[in-house]
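This section describes the prediction task in plain terms. A model, or a person checking by hand, is given the sequence of a single protein chain and must write out its three-dimensional structure as a string of tokens. No templates, partner chains or ligands are provided. The sample shown here is typical of the held-out split.
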Amino acid sequence: MKTLVIALLVIASGCSVLNTEEELDTNPLTGEIGLIILEGESGKQNLQEAREKWDSLSSPTYTYSFTHLAYIGLIEPYEIVVEENAVTDVIISKTGKSAESEFHDFYTKFTIDGLFDYTQNALDKAYEVRVKFNEEFGYPVSVYIDYDENVIDEEEAFQASDYDYTN
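The expected answer:
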């Protein structure tokens, strides 16, 4: 009965009911769809399974494209160069030149393993984490993090794509 009364009040007030399923599988900063919400132990399990897939299939030497979005806006897309599991160069995608030292130093933690660590840290601390994993290799291709439900503009997102490995 309570549910019926609430539904009638919503209809009578002209408010629309959000399609929660659609809202939950979208990255609000990028518009990308297909993300899952990581929560609690099942979220940690999803992340662990993806990391295990990555560990079993990955190469220690690779490149990938990385785009970071934060409350300050889109940060230039970069190509991250990883050799023997360490970032050796951060290249501005648009120019092909190495990034300035301030950005280079910040992005040196973003090996694919670093993306997993960053996501795990967010899962431990944030209000909400949404993620989409690469089907073939398991690495996170899109991550949205909302650190605090009640704070505006502290959200961030990143996208990883164009993974290319060297054997």
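For orientation: The chain has one domain: 2-165.
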